[in-house]
Design brief:
Layout lengths: L4 H4 L5 E5 H17 L3 E2 L9 H9 L5 E3 L2 H9 L4 E7 L3 H13 L1 E6 L2 H12 L5 E8 L11 H10 L5 E9 L9 H24 L6 E4 L16 E2 L9 H6 L9 E12 L2 E4 L19 E2 L6 E5 L4 E4 L11 E5 L3 H5 L4 E6 L2 E7 L8
Helix pairs in contact: 4-5
Length: about 375
């Protein structure tokens, strides 16, 4: 966001969201997905707020994706009726919470281990019901999914007769795509995502499995929906705000980055360096693959945020730094998803003016 007097009045550090741009990002992603026959089930870990989840549903999304039960419970409290938990549910306490959640809303989850699948099945069988599940197919991160093709078929055969499970399809997360250096590499990863998921689904269908859902599509690959035709839904997350990861590869412009962190210059130890009142507790220490530093300074892209402490950001330039003590700047974070989890409330702006304060309902709900 471009700094104006309304932003300069905020106490800092402040997380600010351009609501008009966030809604435009939702609209564009939804329109492009529908054009290519894809439903959209966005990942809410980016915003963690019922306000934005309801906005996504209102604008056409079929439901939401959550990383953890804690997020899902909060979203159910906020009135969301169709929730996919893209994380294995392990342990008696979480099985009980999932069961209670399933009484309130339509909920589904994943399985990626025999123990996890069998424990889940036993729990729901004992309660004379079923839980809908997708088998997680590994997208290259080796983060818990079953390898595509024959290994997924072998896994599916082993849990085919688990009476507490309704196997409804496959889920894929191609996380390696975030290492793409250009649009060409991004498209290559997206094609692989599509091909791995579709060919694995065909193999399972040949062996009698009913595959209704093919869920993939990150915030990177989801912006290439023409390459994902043949799957059923995408699960983009930080597309709603965009961040430096999207900037680096050319998937968004600075103006399309709806979330900024506003901060104040509190010291200028030399002509090239200033220190701001934002650090890892507000901006995140995450780094991008091919970008140095910890964010993009709106209006001063030549300034590098080269270091962060908990409450301090260190910014430098090769030439004399134009910033002075007392100045306020807006920063696009490297990773928007982390920033919202560090804030209890965010400032929602429209047309450059404060519109409302938005509560981050699921802040810290990572259990």
């Amino acid at each position: 966001m471009i700094m104006n007097e309304n932003l300069r009045e905020l106490p800092t550090p402040a997380v600010v969201i351009d609501l008009d741009m966030a809604e435009e990002n939702i609209r564009v992603m939804q329109k492009n997905a529908e054009k290519h026959g894809l439903a959209h089930r966005p990942h809410i870990k980016t915003h963690r707020a019922g306000y934005f989840a309801k906005k996504q549903i209102e604008m056409g999304c079929k439901g939401i994706t959550c990383a953890k039960l804690g997020e899902a419970e909060i979203m159910a409290d906020d009135g969301i009726k169709d929730i996919f938990i893209a994380y294995p549910i392990i342990g008696e306490d979480k099985l009980q919470r999932l069961y209670q959640l399933a009484k309130r809303v339509k909920v589904s989850t994943i399985v990626n281990s025999l123990k996890g699948a069998r424990d889940l099945s036993t729990f729901f069988t004992e309660r004379n019901t079923q839980i809908e599940v997708l088998i997680e197919v590994d997208g290259g991160l080796n983060r818990g999914g079953i390898k595509p093709g024959e290994p997924t078929l072998e896994f599916a055969e082993k849990i085919r007769n688990e009476s507490g499970l309704k196997i409804n399809g496959l889920m894929y997360y191609g996380g390696l795509i975030y290492g793409a250096r250009n649009i060409g590499e991004l498209e290559e990863f997206t094609r692989k995502e599509h091909d791995n998921l579709v060919t694995t689904a065909e193999l399972l269908k040949q062996h009698g499995f009913q595959i209704n859902v093919l869920s993939a599509g990150s915030s990177f690959s989801g912006k290439k929906p023409e390459l994902l035709e043949g799957i059923t839904e995408i699960r983009s997350g930080h597309y709603i705000f965009n961040d430096c990861g999207q900037l680096d590869i050319g998937l968004a412009s600075p103006e399309q980055c709806a979330l900024n962190v506003v901060t104040t210059v509190v010291a200028k130890p030399d002509d090239h360096t200033v220190i701001c009142d934002v650090g890892t507790k507000s901006l995140t220490s995450d780094q991008c693959h091919y970008r140095e530093g910890y964010g993009y300074v709106m209006e001063h892209p030549e300034i590098q945020i080269y270091s962060l402490n908990e409450e301090h950001a260190f910014l430098r330039t090769e030439e004399e730094n134009p910033l002075q003590v007392g100045d306020k700047i807006a920063i696009i974070p490297n990773h928007a998803c982390v920033v919202t989890n560090l804030a209890e409330k965010v400032y929602g702006f429209r047309n450059g003016k404060l519109d409302q304060m938005i509560v981050i309902d699921a802040k810290g709900k990572s259990v």
